[in-house]
Amino acid sequence: MDNRTNILECATELFCEKGYDAVGVQEIVDRAGTTKPTLYYYFKSKYGLLESIIEEYYGRFLERLETVSVYQGDLPNTLYTTCREYLKMAIENKTMYLFTVSLIYSARENDSYRAIRPYMVKTHEIIVKIFEQASNELENMNGRQQQFASGFEGIVNFYLIYYFEIGEPRIDIDEIGKNLVDQFMYGIYS
Amino acid sequence: MDNRTNILECATELFCEKGYDAVGVQEIVDRAGTTKPTLYYYFKSKYGLLESIIEEYYGRFLERLETVSVYQGDLPNTLYTTCREYLKMAIENKTMYLFTVSLIYSARENDSYRAIRPYMVKTHEIIVKIFEQASNELENMNGRQQQFASGFEGIVNFYLIYYFEIGEPRIDIDEIGKNLVDQFMYGIYS
DNA sequence: CACCTATTATACCAATCGGTATATAAGTAT
DNA sequence: ATACTTATATACCGATTGGTATAATAGGTG
To answer: In whole numbers, what is the pLDDT of chain B averaged over residues?
Structure first.
């Protein structure tokens, strides 16, 4: 494995374990078996390293999300397909997923939050688009696309964290996805 | 205001803004207009200061939660009362609530998580107790009290973060509480 | 071979980190 | 008046922070 990838992976591990601020650059290069100038050669700063880590995971996630979230002429089905992919991606990269969640809830003036924000916004835009295209299906949708999108993202994240927490050995994406969309749609119509 | 309270409040502000690790002890005493030995006199370490901040808010929260969560012979009503108090407390202390959420999602090996964990556990125990006392109401409850408790806590936190995020100027506790419990109960029975 | 660019390490930087030894002032109890 | 406790500041500690100046070492290309 090349040095860049190695540093990236060791940093990811450490950030997930201890958090961005609690990990020193020296600690990262020690684990990677290299030295600081090498790290600063590939990533120009500690913050640049964080950005690269997020881009590595979240970039791929956004590509897939954009692909699967195309409107199918039916809201529950579109949500179901989107939800399945969301769950799948998170389960495949559990550690990174939990790390990004911790970043999302981190302090607003912290570098961690600054780094994750553009990806949060982009994710939100993709989900909002689903509800915009479903406007004809739901009466009184006016201006509530943002609200529904936040709600949907929130409930998916909540299910994920919940199932990771109780340590379900085998998570059935199809079943959870169905329950989740059902419960969400119930919330919308009530 | 005495020096101890002043340090406590300044530290709370800074931790909420930037996160525990990103704030230095010097920065805290500068804002409080005092010096480090004073801080170390009242709280024996930076970690002790964090513990005091959490205890200040979460201690009161747990007391109230324990009081209102007594079982009323009816699950939805008990949940509704508990939920109302949970929402009320969070809305009254919005900044501190959001700070504790950020701690809950912080890295497992970070001091922030170590400090919040006992309070998370205690909260969970209180909610579990509700579902244990409702065992006669729900068939097939065996061993799922923990699951329901996690689910309930999750959905309440999700609603709160969601409403704080969209910046609803006036949050109707009664209405949100009702919707929330309804949606949760629907999830249980389906 | 000579040249060039991409990598990597040694050794260092000022600044900040969490924390403390020591001194002092003010109040209080004997 | 003496002794003790509480509360605060000056000045310092070694260790670590993120980051870099410099130089050596590759590997490929003319």
So the answer is: 92
Spelled out in words, what is the top-level CATH class assigned to the domain B1-44? mainly alpha
The answer to whether domain A57-189 has CATH 1.10.357.10 is: yes
Q: In this complex, do A154 and B158 lie within 8 Å of one another by their Cβ atoms?
A: yes
Quick one: tokens of A70? Answer: 């195309």
Q: Contacts of residue B97 in chain A, CB cutoff 8 Å?
A: none
As a whole number of angstroms, the distance between CA A189 and CA B186 comes to 13
Q: pLDDT (tens digit, 9 = 90+) per residue, B131-163?
A: 999 887 776 676 788 888 988 998 899 889 888
Domain boundaries, chain B: 1-44, 57-189
By C-alpha distance, the chain A residue nearest B151 is A162
Of A159 and A110, which is predicted with more confidence?
A: A110
Model pLDDT for residues B10-30, shown as the tens digit of each residue = 999 999 999 999 999 999 999
Query: Are A187 and A131 within 8 A, CB to CB?
Result: no
Name the strand (E) or helix (H) holding A10.
Answer: helix A3-18
Return the amino acid letter for A184: F
**Which residues, other chains included, contact B134 with Cβ-Cβ below 8 Å and sequence gap of 6+?**
B71, B75, B78, B141
Residues 41-80 of B with CB under 8 A from A: none
Statement: residue A161 has pLDDT above 90: no
A7 neighbors A49 (Cβ within 8 angstroms): yes
pLDDT at residue number B162: 83
Which pTM does this prediction carry?
0.92
Measured between CB atoms, does A109 come within 8 Å of chain B? yes
Cα B71 to its chain centre, rounded Å, is 21
